[in-house]
Amino acid sequence: MLVVAVASNFVEWHKTDSETKELTHVFMAHPEAVKLFRAYPHVVLIDSTYKTNKYKIALVEVVGVTPCGSSFLIATVLLPSESEDDYGWMLLRLGELLSCTGSSISAFVTDREMGLIAALESLHPSTPHLLCRWHINRAMEKQALSKQNLMWYKDIILHNPESGWDRVINASTIDEFRSAWECFSEKWEEMTLYVISTWGKYRKKFVNCYTNQYFHLGNTATSRVESAHSLLKAWLKSNNLNLDTMWFRIHSMLEAQHSKIRYELEVSRSRPRNGDRVFSLLQGNVSINAIEIMEAEIKRGIELGNVLEEHCGCVLRVTHGLPCACALIQLQRTGKRVHLEDVHAFWRTLEYDNVGVPPKTDDDELEKLFEEARACDPAKKRVIIEKLRDGLYPEDEEVKPPHVRENPKGRPRGSTTRNKSGFEHARKKAAKVSTPATTSVQHTVGDFDQGPAGAPLEFGYTKGFLSTWNKKYAVPKEVQEFFDGWVDVGNDGHCGYRVVSHAARGRENDHLVMREWGIREIKAYELYEEALRRMEFTSSGGCGPNHWMYGEYLFVFASLFNWTICVISQHEFGESRTWHCCTYLPLRPTAQVTRPYGVLWIVNYHLHWMRLHCRVPETDAPMPPIDPFWLGLRDPLVAPYADLYKTNIEKWHTLMGTTPKVYGRRRRSTPTNEETARKLNFDNAFKV
Question: Which CATH number is 2-128+217-262's, of 3.30.420.10, 3.40.1280.10, 3.40.190.10, 3.40.1050.10?
Fold first, then answer.
């Protein structure tokens, strides 16, 4: 690998073990990548990946940014560990690429790799260093899920507009940051200690009010490096490659990457786009990407309207080196144009072959050294020649491949796919918890025909109350065939919350916890004022009707757990029997989820709630119509949920009939928005 790299004019440094002569460190940079780096050294992103070679050595990718918005691989580095010393060796080599040009790096972007952070603080103490906000948010997500293993809890902590983590890291001023942190720390005490101990001392590396003071070109996350990892592994196709094969594939990838970058720069130079007159002087002189960024800034300024001067922030001037919204709007109003000197040199550099070329003084100094070497004693000449030969002809050096490690990070042989991160494991675990807990017919579900006899006492059966319970009366005969059992709970007034607890945790006795979680959901999204008063109950004893579960309150738990809740409810008035069967869907979306996690079936018989066991898959079960209040309350993002159950609801109507006379049920018309808001106080429902 070293021989072909040098033959291809790669800039290469390496280290070997003094005893075994095995390679330990390798730094390689394509000659075209070196030119790009010297022309665009402003932002450098660094991250390591595994499963790229059979030696199980970490591969560090150092990535830069072009004015067209593309990423380019500055160097690939093999390191034996992620220690401060190893990262320090890499940073020294990276600095040597620029040492002969006088250019400097404006900002580093990395994740919280402690060895790299220490090396940057030691070798680049004055260069801004940003931590990846994406990784920080995922770490916060994992921590939130460890506190309460539920997706809704994570969403509230991260995205609550008043006290969420998003408000903290997006604060644009120091005062806003302090206010946001005060709200967060008061609301989420269980998260505060973690934030202080893990991220507190790094706040200037990721909070907007600090990072907006640096020239980072909008790079506040290492997503560019993650994309580089994905591209690299697509070219490698295996994690069992030797160094030679790995180098050839990386070389092919870089050749394709550099061709694309040259094409993009040529397009910016030779194909001016029709745009706003304010940018006419920039056409062909700055990258199209820069103009598009300024166009988006103008659009933002127009949207701000009369409050532009107050809320502009002028951040783009610092972070991108481009005119901000207030300056661009002013130029538009006065008929003036943006001049080249108003744009940072980064955006104006559309050719890089002759940018940052080392001065010829290096050649002069080399000639001078040669002259001095010629005058040396022959023995010293031999030492100088050997040192030159080691640098110019690595094939003459005794170098062995690295040894294969026994316990590497990564997947089984052959795969380049990365291991799942901690937050992904936490999400998977939370998704399982958020799905209604399944029940075993043999263990917890009473048989329809046998009634409560033989049911385990731990579920709070009350035989006197349930002695007449029978599928003949509790479930419409038209759909009885789809259910084969039931789970009863205590009848102390908490039965509705006990059913939810059983579905969420597999046990009914956490009913007070369900009330608490429901109250958090209500307060977080400013909903259910009436429900809030009825749901608040902290006594360990039974409760009266003022604190019972009511059907509409199931919207809270459908939203909280991202469930679909189907209720079969029967009311008796004298000898008449009326069915009120509804489906309750989530009112708000859950992040990165496109449908509810599962279906919970509940029966309400004589004002007592019990859980039903549906014996057929979700797709085959008939489902009652969606509660009409959902249409007026739901967030637009969950509107497609209704289409998921269209076939199920049609099946229900087919079996039950479409006229009210079947069970004397009166159809309710869909309420207007005003009626909805008046009934349940949903004036500002889920405006997240």
Answer: 3.30.420.10
Domain range summary for the chain, segments of one domain joined by + = 2-128+217-262, 146-211, 272-348, 444-680
Q: Is the pTM of this model over 0.70?
A: no
Q: What is the pLDDT of residues 122-156, one digit of tens each?
A: 999 999 999 999 999 999 888 887 766 555 556 66
The three-class DSSP label of residue 208 is helix
Greatest distance between any 2 Cα atoms in the chain: 120
Mean pLDDT of the chain: 80
β-strand partners of 232: none
Q: Do residues 582 and 627 make contact, with C-beta atoms less than 8 angstroms apart?
A: yes
- How would CATH label the architecture of 444-680? Alpha-Beta Complex (3.90)
The secondary structure of residue 574, as a DSSP letter, is T
State the pLDDT at residue 672. 44
Rounded Cα distance between 31 and 28, Å, is 9
Q: How remote is the C-alpha of 553 from its chain's centroid?
A: 31
Cβ atoms of 37 and 43 closer than 8 Å: no
Residue 49: C-alpha distances to residues 46, 53, 60, 496 (Å): 10, 11, 6, 50
DSSP H helices in 462-596: 463-466, 471-474, 495-505, 511-524, 529-535, 554-561
Q: Which of 158, 151, 118 is nearest to 137 (CA)?
A: 158
Residue type, 681: N
Give the residue from 439, 454, 463, 460 showing the smallest Cα distance to 508: 460
